[in-house]
Amino acid sequence: MLTLTDFDYTLPKELIALYPTPKRSEARLLVLHRESGKMEHRTFEDLPEYLRAGDLLVLNNTKVLPARLFGRKPTGGKVEVLLLKSLEESVWEILLRPGGRVKKGTELIFGENGVKLAGEVLDAAEENSGVRRIRFNPEGFKEKLALLGRIPLPPYIGRPDEAIDRELYQTVFAQVEGAVASPTAGLHFDEKLLLALRKKGIEIAFVTLHVSYGTFQRVDVEDLSRHQMFEEEFEVTQETTDQIRRALKEKRRIVACGTTVVRTLETLGARCPSSLQSVRGKTRLFIYPPYEFKMVDAMITNFHLPRTTLLMLVSALAGRESLFRAYEEAIRERYRFYSYGDAMLIL
Question: How sure is the predictor about 273, in pLDDT bands with cuts at 50, 70 and 90?
């Protein structure tokens, strides 16, 4: 049985991509053929060569919120807030730093350039957790968040967000606001590539899974069966479930773009595929080897951090040994890793 240690590897720090490629579809693409183990080195704009007419390509249309806020307590002490989830109007679950020293009832103030946003902390700190609840002043909240909020780049990028991130950390098909991290496998698509795929007869469908802070969640147990996933919300429209049902009936390939799409589709796969309806729900599905896929035949993904649930999910589809050979090849060939990095296609 595989354990946490089996998903470790060493990455030279200089291969962590700090910025995206200037043109989205010019990212490199490592194509991994599962049956033969063959690998090819291409660019992402070559993707149409590997998909065929009738394939159903499923994308995640979630939109990243400017979810990071920097503010102060009444005493002047600095605080940082990361919005995690909207609970009700103006009330959010947040990650608060420093969380332990902020008391229940404290008013936090966020502001710059004459724009001011206030919020009251609704609960006391819990040991070993920075997760709290806050009620913002509802007046003009959305507009103020757009002005004051910062793009929540992943911690491993190690730089402050910049103006360019507002555009490039968002997919070109992002529509439904709610994510605190980007579905990064989708960052490589541009409008020209989407058009080329449609012209070839590849069907495109959209699901929504709001990527949460759980995408960076550490796995702290060696026995993977004991790991609990962070809950994430998803929505699949009737149009998309109809597309999925037809593809399954006609035995066409379903190609998932990213781990979030895989988890959404496989959550649906636990139901009766022949009677799929529109659905809004939550998932804690943890996919790791061995796992029998019910919906997904192939996937597009980025290169993931060691010892993460994302790497485990991709290993379940590609096979751990095959995937780790591909990662070794990518490191030798100096591919760029993680959120702003290059991509893989697993067929």
Answer: low
